[in-house]
Amino acid sequence: MNEERLEELIWLEIDGEISAGERLILSRARRDDPSAEDQIEELEALSAKLAGAAESEPPPELFARLQAAVAEKRSGATNFSEFQQYSRQRTQSPDRRAQKEADAMSRNQLVKRFGIAAVIVLGVFAIWRYTGDTGPAEEAAMGGTVGTAERYEADQMTKGSVKVDQAVQDFMQTDAFDRITKDPGAQKVLASDQLWNALGTDAVRSALGNAAFRDALGVAAFRDALGVAALRDAFANDAMRAAFGNAAFRDALGNAAFRDALGNAAFRDALSIDAFRDAMSNDAVRDALGNAAFRDALANSAMRDALGNDALRAAFANDALQMAMKNDAFRDAIGNDAFRSALGVAAFRDALGVAAFRDALGVAAFRDALGIDAFRSAFGNAAFRDALGNAAFRDALGNAAFRDALSVDAFRDALGVASFRDALGVASFRDALRSSAFRDALTTNAMRDAARAN
Amino acid sequence: MTDKGDDQLVLEALADRPTAFDELMLRYERRVYSLALRLTGNTQDAMDATQTTFLKALEKLEQFDIKRPFRSWIARIGVNEALNILNRRERFADEGTEPPSRAPGPEQRCAASEAGQEISAALMDLTPDYRAVIVLRHLHELSYDEMSEVLGVPSKTVKSRLFTARRELRRRLAETDFKR
After folding, report:
1. N or C terminus of chain A with fewer C-beta within 10 Å?
2. In angstroms, what separates the C-alpha of A103 from chain B's closest C-alpha?
3. How far apart are CA B105 and CA B84, in angstroms?
4. A11: which chain B residues are within 8 Å (Cβ-Cβ)?
5. Residue B1: inside a domain, yes or no?
6. Among candidates A17, A46, A63 on the partner chain, residue whose Cβ is nearest the Cβ of B25
7. Could you tell me which of A265, A231, A203, A216 has the C-alpha nearest to residue A71?
8. Nearest to A197 by CA among A290, A121, A104
9. Beta carbons of A53 and B115 less than 8 Å apart
10. Does B134 touch chain A (CB under 8 A)?
């Protein structure tokens, strides 16, 4: 066999594309030609080298850029990328020709293409970064800038573009503009495609007047989140704007489920509640936002208030609880104090995985019973959890004697016997549970058998 | 990242769940970028090609056949976009404008291992057609049939092109070793 054919067969073998006949030929060649093994080794090494060198880490900013481009395509928003390119070239390129080209971009075109929003945002950044921290002075200056920009806009509408062009030219000749284009920190913010896209939204432009919002622009996760249309629209909501003052909320913007949830009106309203905003610092809560049932549950004010409860927040990491959120009875039960505190008990949270248990939450007596320690601890008992599927058992929960009886281990174990659970449907049996002697007697099989017989 | 299949994410993206397409981008960003980088040899071009690849994918998502693998579909778009950039670069050269450097940028030089740089340089000496088959086989691990679909050529052509490309690559690598 010639060398070329042998090489071809080896590659087919390495690529996993060799036929049975070709494999037979190759195995004969390996047997007959001592150099075949060396060649196989060499080609396998090359294959491994190619595979090892094949992947490269994308630049960190690439994903944000992709998201922005996709968001822009979806929304059909104004394309700010040329302005961004201009800004990048002007500040980053050591190439004099590129700088010259960038500077040659007509300022008139800048306004035509990017609108007054560009002027506003640059003005905001100039003040934000160079004239002091947040506070009344800044607010005043901020108002001045936006006001000036708005005046430009008004002028643009009434007196044509010449004046606007002049205003932008004036601004671009200021020290502040020069500093922006040379400041890597400001560049980082301004280089965000999402920000530029977001500026096409009225709600975002008006949010620029909010100090917390401007600070949030310093957080990469927040800038990335601006690519989400739901978030941009949400800026029209006062609660949402106020939420920017909360660090947990700003961090949460890095979470995809959280950003999706922003499309939910109930969720945005919930942002007006301090406890709810604080709850955003909890990973489990943020992840739970990926669950549509949970987002819908936020329409329930009890649910939103309940998020102030540590036990509930921790419980969101529990799969059973996430499933339970699809259940109306569960969402109603969230309004019950006893229920919320019961969520602090691991056995109780696990019990949420049992359909019968979730249904039982629809029974008021059952929810009230959750305030009793004995009752809550009973959730650790499998027989007890199974018993929740029994209607007689659930009715019996309305009986105080019955609930007390739950503190007796023997009684809880007895619940594992179907006929015993059925016996709970008999009122006289439930009343008999008032007697401690009767409850203790349940430790004996004979007694349980007797209960069955009755 | 979710453990949903690509087909499920495509369906969700078509049902206007924006994060589903983000998931797909997250899943394939590295592969598409690497593919484009190996084909264009330039970080900026690779980023541009990656962006246009995903934008095209979004635009044509409704035409995607859910029964076929998403990875070869996105690779097909990626190869075409990278080759378009290379063609534009050639046109610039024909018009007398200096084309962007084909040498790896400083970031690439720092990030890549010595072996990786050697392979990258040897790859860039091959014609785009040869480069494409090597990249698709060794980076995307596509089968000959999948490559045939991506490149729009018969499977036999893929086989022979890949054979010649690897021979050529070995020769270049041997030359590099000899020069050292």
Report:
1. C
2. 20
3. 21
4. 162-163, 166
5. no
6. A63
7. A231
8. A121
9. yes
10. yes
d(CA B128, CA B135): 10
Asked whether residue B20 is domain-assigned, the answer is yes
Range of the domain at B173: 6-179
Q: Is the CB of B25 inside 8 Å of chain A's CB atoms?
A: yes
Q: What is the pLDDT of residues A179-201, one digit of tens each?
A: 656 666 666 666 666 666 666 66
- Residue A161 CA to residue A90 CA, distance in Å, equals 25
Asked if the structure places residue B128 within a domain, the reply is yes
Among A331, A339, A341, which residue's Cα sits nearest to residue A304?
Answer: A331
B25 and A56 in contact by Cβ < 8 A?
no
User: Which of B38, B111, B115 is nearest residue A52 as measured by Cβ atoms?
Assistant: B115
Long-range contacts at A92-95 (CB < 8 A, ≥ 24 apart):
A92/A187
Candidate from B58, B111, B120 with C-beta closest to A57? B111
Does the interface ipTM go beyond 0.85? Answer: no
Residues 37-96, chain B: which have Cβ within 8 Å of A?
37-38, 43, 47, 50-51, 54-55, 58-59
SS (H, E, C) B131-172: HHHHHHHHCCCCCHHHHHHHHCCCHHHHHHHHHHHHHHHHHH
Residue type, A311: A
Q: Which of A55, A65, A229 sits opposite B51 (nearest CB)?
A: A65
Q: Where are the domains of chain A?
A: 3-54, 64-227, 381-454
Cα A7 to Cα A2, A11, A13, A44, B167, distances in angstroms: 9, 6, 10, 11, 9
The mean pLDDT values, 10 residues at a time, for chain B of 180 residues are 80 82 91 90 88 91 87 90 80 49 42 65 87 88 88 90 92 73
CB-based contact, A94 to chain B, within 8 Å: no
pTM reported for the whole predicted model:
0.41
User: Could you tell me the sign of the dihedral formed by the alpha carbons of A153, A158, A160, A164, in that order?
Assistant: negative
Tell me how many domains chain B contains: 1
Contact A425, A431 (CB under 8 A): no
Q: Are the beta carbons of A66 and B31 separated by less than 8 Å?
A: no
Domain of residue B71, CATH code: 1.10.1740.10
A95 touches B at CB < 8 Å: no
Nearest CA in chain B to A56: B34
A377 burial (CB, 10 Å; 0-12 / 13-18 / 19+) is middle
